[in-house]
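>> received
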Amino acid sequence: MSLVRAERRRFFKRRLIKWLVVVGVVILGVIATAVFFDNQKVSAETLASAEAKAEAEYDFAMADFQRQLKACQEVPSGNVKPEYCQWVESGEQPQRDWYRAEYYMPSTFVFKGQFEEMIVVWAAIMAVIAFVIGASFVGAEWSTGSMSSLLTWRPKRMSVLGTKLAVLVGWLTTIAVVTGGLWTAALWATAVYRGSTAGMTPGTWQSLGLTGLRGLGLIVAIGVLGFALATLGRHTGVALGVALAVVVVGQVGLTILLLMLRVPYPEMYLIPTHLQAWMSKVVQVSNPFANPADCMGGQCVEQVKSITWQDTGSITLGAIVVLLVLAFWQMRRRDVS
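>> returned
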C-alpha cells in the first residue's frame, strides 16, 4: 500500500477527527436553523402592518407631546416648571421620519447584504475545528508511538511528514468545500423562503466567492498551523496549549502592554484585527495616542492606518512557513522514539 493511501485512510480512521467534523456540521446546522426561523419573508400584509404600527406610534407620540405641552403651559406663573418643559416648549415635536415602517418590520434574511457575514461565521467555526484536526493528526502519532512504527516501515522522515501534511491539506480543503457548499445552500434556502435573493448579479457572486476562498484559505492555514505546532511539541496538547496561551493570555497581556507603552495603532498587533482584515479585505485602525499638536483650528483629524488582506496574508504565510521549516528540521535532526 502506498504511503499516501495509508495516510488518507488513517486520517478518517481517527474517531476524534470524525467527531470534530460531525460537531462542526451540527453547529453550522443549528445556526442555519436558527437563522431560518428567526427571519420572515416580507409580504404586502407584513408591510401594511408595519406601516400601521409606525403610524400608530407617531400618533401616540404626538398626542403625548401635546399633552405635555399643554401641562407645561398651564403651570402657574412663578412656579418651577418640570425639566421636560424646556424640551417640549422648544418646539421640537416628534417627526414622522422618526417612525418609519422599516423600523417595525420583522427580521428578513437578505442574501446579498448578509451572506458575507455568514461566510465569516462558517470560516471561524471550521478554522477552530481545523486547528484541532491538524494538531491531533500528527500529535497522536507521537503520543502513541505510532510514528516510530511508521518510520520502521518507511524510514524516510521527510517523505513521511510531507505526506502527512499533504493529506491534511487535501482533506481540510475537501471538508471546507463540502461544509461551505452546505452552508451556502442552507442560507440560500433561507433567503428564498424567509427573505430575499434580489440583487444577486454575477459580480455579487464573484465577490462572495472570493470571500469564500479567503475563508477556505483561513481554514487550511489554521489547520497547517496546528500541524506544525504539534510536530514541534510532539503532542496534540502542546499545540492546544500554545494556541490557548497566544489567543487568550497573550492577546490580553499584549493589549495591556501596548496601551501602557502608548504604542501607536495598538490594534494592528492583535490577531482579531488581522483576521477581520483577511475576511473583509481591509480594516482601519486608529491611533488613540495622537499628538494634540496635530489638531489645527480646534479640529482634530483622526489618525488611521489601513491593514489589507494582503498584509495579513503575508504575515501569516511567513509565520507558517517558519514553523514548518522548524518542524521538518526537527523531524530530521531529533531521534524518534
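>> The mean pLDDT is 83.
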